[in-house]
Amino acid sequence: MQWIPKGWVPKAIAVDIDGTITDSNKEINLGAIAALRRLEDFNIPIILTTGNVRAITYGLWRFIGATGPMVCENGGVVWHPKWGEPIVRADGKRAKDAALMLGEKLNLDSEGITTNAWRESEWCLFPDENLEMINDLISKSAFSDLSVVKTGFAIHLMEPQISKAQGLTIALEKMGILPADVLAIGDAPNDISMFNLVGHSIAVGGCFEELAAVAKVISPFERGDTFEHVCEAIINNISQ
Length: 240
Prior knowledge:
- It is built from eight helices and eleven strands.
- It has helices at residues 30-41, 54-64, 93-106, 131-139, 164-175, 192-197, 209-212, 226-239; strands at 12-15, 46-49, 70-72, 77-79, 87-88, 123-125, 147-150, 155-158, 182-186, 200-205, 217-222.
- It folds into two domains: 12-88 and 162-239, Rossmann fold (3-Layer(aba) Sandwich), CATH 3.40.50.1000; 93-158, Hypothetical Protein Ta0175, Chain: A, domain 2.
- The protein is α/β, with parallel strands linked by helices and 240 residues long.
- An eight-stranded mixed beta sheet has the order 5-4-3-2-1-9-10-11, sandwiched between helices. A three-stranded antiparallel beta sheet has the order 6-8-7, with helices on one face.
- Helix 1 (30-41) packs parallel to helix 8 (226-239).
- The radius of gyration is 17 Å and the shape is globular.
- Strand 7 (147-150) and strand 8 form a beta hairpin.
């Protein structure tokens, strides 16, 4: 299988977390972690690019031993500890207000998922809420400019300037790396923008159909099991 273009070595790898470096039980895939560490050993920085919050992302970043910046909350927060304060691209207030409006009209839980306690730029509802009704109400409200994106873990309410592509662009500019030199790996619709940005993309096995439609490669291996094979392909290209 041709995982990456022949002879091509990415200068950085943008990696989603939930559903990508996890297994089918949504637990961390240890093989994926080992593969990411090997790539760091070859001086290829890992950029965790996720819908998750900065606190959780930072913990995983440390334990992996990643060196790239973190793109959190779907690009709403971009950070590296060496920078000091994070770049927060929206305050999240309107997203939370939109959730409160939805809670009143649809009788859903506007408090949403647990990690909202640490969110800085967006607000997340439970993934089993009625997406069609949410989209319909948002489109007819004062929050019609907000993006509504469903992943396997949440329904994200975001300001229009927030996307993984926009957050990743900021991170890459700070690193001095062109998007064409980056590999992105993910599983869900919130990864589409970064797949369209970078030079090469791989959707893990079990991904959303919307992401598979734009991916350069679709892995035959389930989620985190993909990484060992991608790692070997990159190292083989380095050694040629």
